[in-house]
Amino acid sequence: MSNIDDLYRWDREHFWHPFTQMADYEPLVIERAEGCTLYDIEGRAYLDGVGSLWCNLHGHRHPRLDAALREQLDRVAHTTALGASNVPAITLAKRLTEIAPPGLEHVFFSDSGATAVEVALKLAFQYWRQRPDPRPAKSCYVAFTDGYHGDTLGSVSVGGVERFHAMFAPLLFETLRLPAPQTYRLPPGVNAADACGYYLAQAEELLRREHARIAAVVIEPLIQCAAGILTHPSGYLRGLRELTRRYNVLLIADEVAVGFGRTGRMFACEHEDVTPDLLCLAKGLTGGYLPLAATLATDELWQAFLGPYEASRQFYHGHTYCGNPLGAAVALASLDVFAEEQTLAKLPAKVERLEMHLRRIAQHPNVGDVRGRGLIRAIELVEDRATARPFAFRERRGHLACRAARERGVLLRPLGNTLVMFPPLSISLDEIDQLMLAIEHGIEVAMR
Ligand SMILES: *Cc1c(COP(=O)(O)O)cnc(C)c1O
pTM for the whole thing? Predict the structure, then answer.
């Protein structure tokens, strides 16, 4: 075993971390975990307040998930899905079609949220070329400002987080934009009651004008998480679904972050009775254990890819680890845990406890907005509450608050000056108290 100082040094020098300024990176090295608690190599304990970046569902080292993985390991770790198959992936495809919004019958596996979105974009594109009444002019996408769909070039093209987008702009394809539907910082003259109608009118205007060249609208249903848990007005998703039907445009729902119970229902689309044409899943799919993703499609899409071999209508896309048996086995176990532990039925009490704390924290003079749904929540810190004026980016107030929370044993990762709560669904009421008291302490420290 290397000693702790070597690990810290090698971590800084050789392990290039994602979305991290390595010049001021302060190593935090996790050695093991249990339930919602992570332990670092010095034995310090941290509550996993962001579910290991939005993917952990049932806690770490869940006996059921661990056993499923071990059992599959005794059979086979990986075999190809190119023209062949494996038992757990077949079973998972079937199970996903059973729990997904009705009408999504076919599952294409890949390995990350970004690839799940790339697959959806390419399926939509090829569909319009191959369907019975082809519309090859439909080759453009509509996406939202501040949207986030992953970091490969296609998913960045439909993303809209300015700081990630600007650097690579010359490499990206053209995308039509809609303003992200907001519930905070509404445009002048728009109030909460008519926000949904206001944003839908903008969507309709764009679709009416451009539908002939639009393949699909890409949306994060209900909550744009990476944008700062930006929460859409209720009714927007359903309204958008109606508009995309009226204007003959596909709807791609990216539930990579909001899927698997986070919002209180298995999938966010269920809140508004929406079935998208394509549904992207990743993060929570394996309960946060292994990289696995899925893109679900309707039968209408699937049919456009069928034909005799020489017609070359198959989907020209694939990843080496597509349908990986270990990932599929642990994903199946995660779905079993939902049923066995009544995970969704236990959520309302947890949500209520979280909201009790949020009501108190919302009184703080520097808390501009508290938003989100289910166990996805955010607290936005602002310099001036009356005008919603943000703190300067360089002041790093969110970072300061999270650093102080870490001293109280809670691990968080902010989005700018927005504090994010994204705990495992298995979090206990006591752990919610610990999480929220640490955040409250963090806010006090950051405002000094
Ligand atoms: C995280 C995220 C992605 C990208 O997933 P990766 O597995 O990191 O590629 C895509 N869409 C949404 C909504 C996400 O939150």
Answer: 0.98
